[in-house]
Design brief:
274 residues; Helix Hairpins; Rossmann fold; 7-stranded parallel sheet; 58% helix
Length: 274
């Protein structure tokens, strides 16, 4: 599954502007070469034909030189010498054009930009999905429980975990949701039904909760808290479901402690009937 990589969006925009400028420069070079070739052939034409006819024939020959289509008109020795120089210039320009085209097609930024555009079309159709912040072990467990009946989008800032989520067939937005509002936008925060924050950084969890609640007031936000006071702060920031991890673990341990252990049934060696 492709990944929408926020960090490459601005780089891709700069890359697009650069390549547009290179394309304009390349077209300009071909146009200038064509014009110089046509004017040079017209100036070296010894016939008594009117100047417009000379210029037209020269432009025809110059166009055939650039496109390698059609036939040339007869050349004088001086024009042949001039055409040899023009042919060499066109060969150099053609090699430069081929090199630039190959670079455009194989450039990693261009490939990522195409991948981003593909993901944008996918995200535009998402509705009522669940966004999971982080693909850490906790994020993986949450995602595994959601994938059976929910559309899930993963937000992950590291390359390694983002690639792992993508390899698992998940929709992924790579970026830091705690510092860049564009990350939540691309993940479809406005049309999501729920958000699960699995980050361990307390300040980052608070920032993400504030940003998400500001964008979608109806969003259910589940987040872990270090203690009750931090949980209260997160709830005031817009979280709807707070899990204090230590309390949850303590309650589970105590519950298991006073629950009678299951009775083991020894079916391996049944008693013989007398």
């Amino acid at each position: 599954m492709p990944i929408y990589r926020i960090a490459y969006v601005r780089r891709a925009q700069r890359d697009t502007h650069l390549r547009r400028a290179q394309l304009i420069r390349l077209i300009s070079l071909f146009t200038i070469t064509l014009a110089i070739t046509a004017l040079g052939l017209a100036a070296l034409d010894p016939s008594d034909a009117p100047w417009p006819d000379k210029l037209f024939n020269s432009l025809w020959n110059a166009t055939n030189l650039v496109t390698t289509l059609g036939d040339f008109t007869a050349f004088t020795p001086a024009q042949k010498v001039f055409m040899m120089g023009a042919s060499f210039s066109i060969m150099v320009l053609g090699g430069y054009a081929i090199t630039q085209t190959v670079n455009w097609l194989t450039n990693p930024i261009a490939a990522i930009n195409r991948e981003n555009h593909q993901m944008i079309r996918t995200f535009e159709t998402l509705r009522d999905h669940v966004i999971v912040i982080g693909y850490s072990p906790l994020g993986k467990l949450v995602t595994a429980r959601l994938m059976s009946d929910q559309n899930v989008v993963i937000i992950e800032k590291t390359d390694e975990l983002a690639n792992l989520a993508s390899e698992a067939g998940l929709l992924v937005v790579q970026g830091d949701a705690g510092t860049d509002d564009e990350v939540l936008t691309r993940a479809g925060i406005d049309s999501a039904r729920a958000l699960v924050v699995t980050s361990e950084a307390a300040d980052r969890k608070l920032a993400i909760t504030l940003m998400a609640h500001a964008r979608n007031a109806n969003l259910r936000i589940a987040v872990t808290a270090e203690d009750d006071s931090r949980g209260l702060l997160l709830r005031r920031a817009g979280a709807t479901d707070i899990v204090v991890a230590d309390d949850l673990i303590a309650n589970t341990l105590v519950g298991h402690l006073f629950t009678p252990p299951p009775v083991a049934h020894d079916n391996a060696h049944p008693k013989k009937l007398s």
